[in-house]
Amino acid sequence: MQELIQTRKIMEDDRKQIILQVLADKYCKHILHSTIESPKSAMALSKDEKIPISTVYRRLQTLFDAKLLAISGSINSDGKKFFLYKSKVKAISIKCDLNNTTIEVEPNLSA
User: Fold this and answer.
1) Which spans in 25-70 are helix H?
2) Domains of the chain
3) When comparing pLDDT for 4 and 93, which is higher?
4) Distance, C-alpha 19 to centroid of its chain
């Protein structure tokens, strides 16, 4: 059986620019890829992807502001806040000619 893939076309130029900047950053791409299947904490991302923790937190904020990352949180038994991050996108397709840039986003349905 063939699976129907739903994509969303990005129309706003500002949003396109943000997505292009995110994709140009290797750390943002690593974080998005690492969190497609299951949510991860900032510490797990730092360890798994070998990214300094301060860089992880900056990129998480960038991805959240770009609406490409979902955040869920809870409080553990010690009263400490615990956040998990998950990619809201499964794939991003870009087509660029000299006049137009077309960006389509495939949502991560497990997010």
Assistant:
1) 26-34, 42-49, 53-65
2) 12-87 (1.10.10.10)
3) 93
4) 10
